[in-house]
């Protein structure tokens, strides 16, 4: 089978690998669509993402969907031909968590994740013709949800988790700073969860156009205007450390700021005084727990992720797809790989 494999910074190849077969408790997926994430870009550009450093060749991709091609012994509840996406996380070791974080499996101290070099050996992702997964990782797509849209269940789950971390947003105004793919999906997630109004801000006009199409009531071009004042709920999705001061200032006294944009793992300079004097609750948001299920339900119920998809490439053009996704001048938001093409 073909697989999109990063060998080192700047070195991504379409490698041939043996066709996999499912074992007991496993399912073989024939992959159809994969969404390119910032971590895929980081492995390609830098050979690392955060503290995860590439030590061996790695199959990229954790935003994927396809169809069941074969079923291993002992698997019930799925049939060949079923459309499905995948929960990409696997807990390693004792699954129990301290009472204070019970159920928050995204905070388990050791997690294998599709397309991740965090552990050695690495965990291959799903940018390939086929991928064997445990049956419990399979999430069947509801009627009316295509495999193309199913590949976005993972990032939409990230967005829904961020909104969940903000608390009850019903009837409230939400500011989303950063209108990249996650930010635009956060816009849609906030509207889906009942926000009265959502404001999206960014420095790129194409990104703001996507956010508007995803449901933003107002957009702010930060090259021309400043952030609004006194917003009760703010979700920071840019991951730009230089933006933190202005985002804290935009957050109302006693308000909540959710950090879903990945901040650098090294020292940065940021203006933080308002965190104290405005008594802002600043919380992190990391991946998701089971919100991938909520994402599928939301799409079933009408949440349309189409506007965030701006580019599609066949698998054998993976390098071009990665470069497009990394270059904001292309106007890209979510770039998809047609894994069956």
UniProtKB/TrEMBL annotation:
- GO MF: oxidoreductase activity; zinc ion binding
Source organism superkingdom: Bacteria
Q: Which PROSITE patterns match?
A: ADH_ZINC
Q: Which CDD domains match?
A: idonate-5-DH
Q: Which UniProt keywords apply?
A: Metal-binding, Oxidoreductase, Zinc
| InterPro entries in alphabetical order | ADH-like_C (IPR013149), ADH-like_N (IPR013154), ADH_Zn_CS (IPR002328), ER (IPR020843), GroES-like_sf (IPR011032), NAD(P)-bd_dom_sf (IPR036291)
**Can you say what this protein is called?**
L-idonate 5-dehydrogenase
């Amino acid at each position: 089978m073909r697989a999109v494999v990063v060998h080192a910074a700047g070195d991504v190849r379409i490698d041939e690998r043996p066709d996999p077969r499912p074992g007991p408790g496993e399912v073989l997926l024939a992959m159809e669509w994969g969404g390119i994430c910032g971590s895929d870009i980081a492995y390609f550009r830098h050979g690392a993402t955060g503290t995860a450093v590439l030590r061996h060749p790695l199959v990229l991709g954790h935003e994927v969907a396809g169809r069941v091609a074969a079923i291993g012994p002992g698997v019930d509840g799925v049939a060949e031909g079923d459309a499905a996406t995948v929960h990409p996380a696997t807990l390693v070791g004792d699954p129990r968590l301290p009472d204070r974080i019970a159920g928050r499996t995204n905070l388990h101290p050791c997690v294998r994740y599709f397309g991740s070099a965090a552990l050695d050996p690495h965990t291959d992702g799903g940018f390939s013709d086929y991928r064997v997964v445990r049956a419990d990782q399979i999430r069947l797509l509801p009627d009316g949800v295509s495999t193309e849209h199913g590949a976005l269940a993972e990032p939409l789950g990230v967005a829904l988790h961020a909104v969940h971390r903000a608390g009850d947003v019903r009837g409230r105004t939400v500011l989303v700073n950063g209108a990249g793919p996650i930010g635009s999906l956060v816009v849609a997630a906030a509207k889906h969860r009942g926000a009265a109004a959502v404001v999206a801000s960014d420095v790129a006009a194409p990104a703001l156009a996507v956010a508007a199409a995803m449901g933003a009531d107002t957009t702010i071009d930060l090259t021309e205007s400043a952030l609004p004042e006194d917003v009760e709920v703010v979700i920071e999705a840019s991951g730009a450390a230089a933006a933190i001061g202005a985002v804290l200032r935009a957050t109302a006294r006693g308000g909540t700021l959710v950090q879903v944009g990945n901040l650098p793992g090294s020292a940065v300079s940021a203006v933080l005084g308002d965190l104290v004097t405005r008594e802002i609750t600043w919380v992190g948001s990391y991946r998701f727990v089971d919100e991938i299920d909520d994402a599928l339900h939301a799409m079933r119920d009408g949440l349309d992720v189409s506007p965030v998809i701006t580019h599609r490439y066949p698998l054998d053009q993976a390098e071009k797809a990665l470069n497009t996704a990394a270059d904001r001048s292309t106007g890209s938001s979510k770039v998809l790989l047609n894994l069956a093409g």
